[in-house]
Design a protein that fits this description.
Elements (H helix, E strand, L loop, with lengths): L5 H9 L3 E7 L9 E6 L3 H17 L5 E3 L6 E5 L3 E6 L1 H7 L1 H4 L4 E4 L5
Parallel strand pairs: 2-5
Antiparallel strand pairs: 1-2, 1-6, 3-4, 4-5
Length: 113
């Protein structure tokens, strides 16, 4: 299942996203099947990552809703089965989604050089 959304991780990696993680929530969650998490190092970087994820998802025919577009800590791109969370470092530490969904299958995206 996580392989189906690797294109999002690749788009985030192309924009130098930090600590990219995908999580298969499956039946544990009613909100999305997959979360993709990424950290940006500034507000500008968070906007760049948000735009890159949105464009990649829309190219695949997904309808994307964005929440917190002006937030300095957390932005959410919701496309139903997949949700992308773009965090600042402070926001990622505060919300700790990896801990909250600790039982989910998790894959860290490894950059290809």
């Amino acid at each position: 299942m996580l392989d189906d959304y690797a294109y999002i991780c690749e788009a985030l990696a192309d924009k130098k996203g930090i600590d990219i993680v995908s999580m298969a929530l499956g039946e544990e969650a009613t909100i999305s099947d997959v979360f993709v998490l990424v950290t940006g190092n500034s507000e500008t970087h968070m906007k760049t990552l948000t735009d890159a994820a949105r464009e990649a998802m829309e190219r695949r025919g997904l309808t994307v809703k964005i929440e917190g577009e002006n937030s300095t800590n957390w932005r959410l791109l919701d496309a139903g089965n997949v949700a992308v969370h773009v965090f600042s470092r402070k926001g990622r530490e505060f919300y700790r989604l990896e801990t909250l969904w600790g039982d989910a299958e998790t894959r860290r995206y490894e950059y290809e050089l």
